[in-house]
Amino acid sequence: MAHYSGRASRRHSLNIPGHAHELTFSCYRRFPFLSEDRCRNWFGRAISEAALAHDFAIWAYVVMPEHVHLILWPRKADYDMSAILKSIKEPVGRRGIAWLAKHAPDCLPRITRTRGKRVERLFWQSGGGYDRNIDNYETLELMIDYIHANPVRRNLVAHPCDWLWSSAKWHLRREPGPIPIDPIV
User: Fold this and answer.
1) pLDDT of residue 14
2) Residues 102-106: what's their mean pLDDT?
3) Buried b (16+ CB within 10 A) or exposed e, 115-127
């Protein structure tokens, strides 16, 4: 089986009609904020709401303890990937920081930074993360296999289908997971 690992460099998103996108973004300083189902559920809700608001299909995902992989396909020719990312990440970050402030305030200094006179608390690593355009089915299949294997490579599970917060079961067995998957067109 071929292997996909296009991790060469960050680049700006190219909003090309008909292209799918493989997105990878991380929690601030790779803190494992997504290791609890509470936060993963917030993420699932945010991705579903963003999909409705921005009219994109969710083709695959893996939510790891400190980062996320998504493969999505904008249904409209005119779309803005940065606006899509903001719609996904912002509500999760707000809820996560509010939860920390209430339940683990001693963690706040580790996620706080000062920029000039502005004080920020960060849930996500700054920037858009990685965005790879997908323009053919072979690359799409390789990327789906690659992201689904992430929990196995990290020794979190023995088989991709064993990781609950992944679309692997849907792709291999058509079993639903916590985030609904759209058919690949």
Assistant:
1) 76
2) 96
3) eeeeeebbbbbee
Residues in the chain: 185
Q: How far is CA 21 from the centre of its chain?
A: 11
Residue 102 tokens read as 């209430």
Instruction: Indicate the helix (H) or strand (E) that contains 43.
Output: helix 37-54
pTM of the model: 0.89
| Rounded Cα distance, 124 and 101, in Å | 16
Question: At residue 164, what are phi and psi to the nearest 5 degrees?
Answer: -60, -45
Residue tagged 């994109």 (tokens): 56
70 near 61, Cβ under 8 Å?
yes
Domains of the chain are: 20-173 (3.30.70.1290)
